[in-house]
Amino acid sequence: MSKEQRAKIDAMLRAPAPAGPRSVEEIRSGFAALMDTMIVPEDIRTAEATLGGRRALRVEPAGEPRPGTILYFHGGSFVFGSPETALSLTGNLVARTGLTALSLDYRLAPEHPFPAASDDSLEAYRALLESGADPSAVAFAGDSAGGGLAVTTCLRARAAGLPMPAAIVAFSPGLDGTRTGESMRTKAAADPILTREGLDHTGAMYFAGQDPHQELISPAVLADLTGFPPMLLQVGTNELLLDDSTRLAARARAAGVDVVLDVTADVPHVFQCFAGVLNEADQALDRAALFLTQQVRLGNPNQRS
């Protein structure tokens, strides 16, 4: 356990912020500045792409990629973030697996509230399949809100009659717009990043008056996960959203879905982005890469449709 590393990151994340609600522009620019400080692997290359009518960032290993695609959904409470802010995560997954990632630039609230991001994620997966991708060689991955999209895109795909991908990897996923998890209360002091007030602020932009009691917003408490592919949920104990992952894992088990609930002690929300600085981040990414390489393979005999 890297106590000094974790303490340094916690202190950095607790640095005083301007008082009161910030504008959307301030939230977006502040998050972009923070994520620009993260370490991105050197042995990758990026290129512009289009997927389902939306911009995407293609992230590939420097050498010959192995067959398979990670369809990645960035975090940011559905209000901020971009493929560029998630590059430390996609870059590390690509460098560790040899797979290609397509990181989707889905529409954001408040300009485009729910279900715009969900619509974009479904169309991206549909376009990937229509381009000839084998679903047994496609994995969904995402962080925070994007981790939630990785789950709900499977719900949308199943409803649309599309085949399931090979796997889901979700880093600190946001899976409960009702905010009813016990960790929303018990982890309030431990979480150096998220606050209930902040989640309510961005949530209001995303929900735009809609009831969060629906499976595409709160899958941890409402979704039927029957027929889902194997899932890896990684989360830290110092998170308001801890119970989003623990409750989804319980629902997955109840539905007969293979699920790995990977909980790391004393680390913050989406701690994996601190790869190269925090030992636990690199170790978690290694575990995620192993999971992906085990699940993503052409002609996977365990593929569910």
Task: Give me the side-by-side strand order of the main sheet.
Answer: 1-2-4-3-5-6-7-8
Q: Structural class, from secondary structure content?
A: alpha/beta
Distance between the termini: 40 Å
**Average pLDDT taken over every residue:** 95
Instruction: Classify the beta-strand content into a percent band.
Output: 15-25%
Q: What is the CA-based Rg, rounded?
A: 18 Å
Question: Which ranges are low-confidence, i.e. pLDDT below 50, for 5 or more consecutive residues?
Answer: 299-305
Pfam family, one: Abhydrolase_3
Organism: Amycolatopsis lexingtonensis
InterPro entries: AB_hydrolase_3 (IPR013094), AB_hydrolase_fold (IPR029058), GDXG_lipolytic_enzyme (IPR050300), Lipase_GDXG_HIS_AS (IPR002168), Lipase_GDXG_put_SER_AS (IPR033140)
Domain Alpha/beta hydrolase fold-3: 70-272
What key attributes describe this structure?
eight-stranded mixed beta sheet, disordered C terminus, alpha/beta, 305 residues
Overview of this protein structure:
An eight-stranded mixed beta sheet has the order 1-2-4-3-5-6-7-8, sandwiched between helices. Residues 299-305 have low confidence and may be disordered. α3 (87-97) packs across α10 and α4 (116-130) packs across α5. It has ten helices and eight strands. The termini are far apart. The chain is globular and about 50 Å long. With 305 residues, it is of the alpha/beta class. It holds the Pfam family Abhydrolase_3.
Provide a compact summary of the structure.
The active site is at residue 144. Belongs to the 'GDXG' lipolytic enzyme family. This protein is α/β, with parallel strands linked by helices and 305 residues long.
